[in-house]
Design goal:
heterodimer; A: about 110 residues; mainly alpha; two-stranded antiparallel sheet; 5 helices; 2 strands; elongated; B: about 160 residues; alpha+beta; 3 helices; 8 strands; globular
Chain lengths: ~110, ~160
């Protein structure tokens, strides 16, 4: 299912909502569980969840009086891409180190001559 | 080229491995000599490491400061626990954002791998919540970069 790109962008533009998604990447959570680490009221968290739900990034189910949230399948794929991005940032450092090591080796070669 | 791996292990570990063409002596030096560290451990494009203190001896201090060149930045402090030249570095570190994060205990091992080196960096966090927080923070930054890049790509294509 394609969601409106604008809705996805504005949903992702907020740091609290990105943090909520990062938390949900680790598993399902209730509003109460989400409100705790962010030191926000439950109604404030609920408003963020509504935006995320509207953008198709999360889905909610009914369990008694609770409505636990989890990432939508599309969002999980996006999350994988983001985790890859984190790997890439670290990988870039090491790619630079490759070059630094190559320079060290060639300098050593010069000194030996 | 996918030379690096990053995975979680158990509840509290994160393990990174990377192969290098250079021998262990050189890769080890690149991890303890400040002038060399400053050349590569700079993070995202455009960032620099203006301060790099690395007293490579047991109990020696570590302090790395990163800057985005626009007044933004953060720093890391730590202490060395033990060092075996060309083989192994054990240290603890914490980020200051600006509040310090819980200690991350890091063991970095350099093993000969043909002509080169296999490096294994094993991080141990105090508990699984801390590890979650660390990975989430990293992920959030990755998401920020991703969001910015996606937006730029779409702008360039005139679609947004």
């Amino acid at each position: 299912m394609r969601h409106d790109l604008d809705a996805t962008f504005s949903a992702l533009a907020d740091p609290t909502r990105r943090a909520i998604l990062a938390r949900l990447a680790l598993g399902e959570a209730t509003v109460m569980e989400l409100a705790e680490p962010f030191e926000m009221s439950q109604p404030a968290i609920s408003r963020h969840l509504k935006v995320l739900e509207g953008a198709g990034l999360i889905v909610r189910r009914v369990e008694g009086t609770k409505r636990p949230c989890r990432l939508a399948a599309d969002a999980i794929r996006e999350m994988d891409q983001w985790l890859n991005m984190l790997r890439e940032a670290l990988a870039r450092n090491y790619d630079r180190l490759d070059q630094v090591l190559a320079d060290m080796q060639s300098e050593q070669g010069k000194e030996a001559k | 080229m996918s030379k690096m791996t990053l995975r979680t292990e158990g509840d509290t570990h994160v393990v990174v491995t990377r192969r290098f063409a250079a021998p262990p002596e050189a890769v080890y030096r690149a991890h303890i000599e400040p002038e060399i560290i400053k050349k590569w451990m700079v993070g995202p494009e455009g960032w620099t490491m203006p301060v790099c203190i690395n007293e490579a001896k047991p109990g020696g201090k570590i302090r790395y400061e990163w800057s985005d060149g626009k007044g933004g930045g953060f720093y890391l402090t730590g202490e060395f626990i033990s060092l075996e030249p060309s083989r192994r570095i054990v240290h603890v570190e914490r980020m200051h954002l600006p509040d310090p994060t819980p200690d991350n205990h890091v063991e970095t091992v350099f093993e000969p791998d043909g002509q080169g080196t296999l490096m294994t960096m094993r991080m141990t966090l105090p508990d699984s919540d801390t590890r979650t927080a660390m990975l989430s923070t990293g992920m959030e930054q990755g998401m920020e970069a991703s969001y910015a890049r996606l937006e730029e790509t779409l702008k360039a294509e005139g679609r947004y």
